[in-house]
Amino acid sequence: MISLEDWAEIRRLHRSERLPIREIARRLGISRNTVRSALASDRPPRYERPRRGSVADVFEPQIRALLVDWPKMLAPVIAERIGWPHSLSPLKKRLQLIRPEYVGVDPVDRTTYRPGAIAQCDLCFPATPIPVGGGQERVLPVLVMVLGYSRFITALMIPSRQGGDILSGMWELISQLGRVPKTLVWDRESAIGGTGKVTTVAAAFAGTLATRIQLAPPRDQEYKGVVERANGYLETSFLPCRRFTSPTDFNIQLQDWLTRANTRTVRAIGGRPVDLLTTDIQAMIELPPVIPSVGLSHRIRLARDYYVRIDAADYSIDPRVIGRFVDVSASPTTVTARCDGQIVARHDRSWEKHVVVTDPDHVDTAAQLRCGFATERARRTAAATRQHTDGHTVALRALPDYDALFGVDFDSTPTTVRTTS
Q1: Cβ(170)–Cβ(145) under 8 Å?
Q2: Mind listing the pLDDT tens digit for each residue in 190-220?
Q3: What does the alpha-carbon distance between residue 78 and residue 91 come to, in Å, rounded to a whole number?
Q4: pLDDT band at residue 128, thresholds of 50, 70 and 90?
Q5: Domain containing 23: what range?
Q6: Are residue 275 and residue 304 in the same domain, yes or no?
Q7: Which residues pair with 74 in a beta bridge?
Q8: Residues 140 and 239 reside in one and the same domain
Q9: Do 181 and 281 contact (CB within 8 A), yes or no?
Q10: What burial class does residue 17 get, using C-beta atoms within 10 Å of its C-beta: 0-12 exposed, 13-18 middle, 19+ buried?
Q11: 249 falls within a domain
Q12: What phi and psi, each to the nearest 5 degrees, are found at residue 287?
């Protein structure tokens, strides 16, 4: 086979120097037929190795017979069914070629986004445990939000994947932008739309912001591929070789990294997210005049054990409101309790599990109430008389007097009661 250099030289000598075929063959030391072939070819010579057979050729009829009924059957299962004696590599290569004939082809269109139209949201769970205090470490969720038009990434670690905590994180990220995207895309996250329908708290949040929450089809990661790629970018470019001392430290390092990450050039948009952010934000909706309802909240009648539980942690409440309804709300940083509009407890939120957070003032108040209760009980017990409704004194009788009055006699056996006339 003629080399590429000889092919180019033959064409140069023939066209530029007008040499005849015989002279070209003499100069290059090749046959005249080779020169003729080179001049007749318009394309450079390319070596093509003749196709050799594969060990899968003999098994292909059996493979196709299985794919007719089970087009998505996995390669190891097919190998077991057909008695495959070799490594799986040749079988997988053959399946890549013939499986589309049975499964079909599912092309994906290129999606374009208008400024301010959409933001994709997701929860990412870094494998790195984060110290949360008290010697505990937890794998905590990171809320990631990516703007579709500019590809601008925002992210924040939150205490849990409960609806109130997710909405708190979304509100903080949206507040940082200063405007509201017209559509928030979520997958079937249980607190947002696990049943295929947007939850009540999420719908109320979207209504307050005058936006909408759009749920992705089940098991379709491509539907929100922008945020999925951002998750992968965070896990491969931010987390490696980093150490964190607390969730606050994690968020500080994350924000510093995002500042640099949003200045990289993204091939899909042909520019940097930070340069397109202004155009994206200007097309969004203004922030609402009222703050949406976010955070964890519930209403409970305070028991004698004057503690309430928020996300696996117990917080003390002013014991003076025992027996009354208390409204408890928790943001990622604080826990506040109110009774009839009055604040009866305020604590820093703990991200630890199975801990008890106590206000010393509540302990002192409880001790005073117990002391007063004991004193009052003793006073009532020591009183020998009580006042009737008409004001005259009524003597308190001993309980055995009532036994004798009704003819009840207790013998030596406590469980036996004998009645006499």
Answers
A1: yes
A2: 999 988 899 999 999 999 999 999 998 887 7
A3: 9
A4: confident
A5: 4-40
A6: no
A7: none
A8: yes
A9: no
A10: exposed
A11: yes
A12: -65, 150
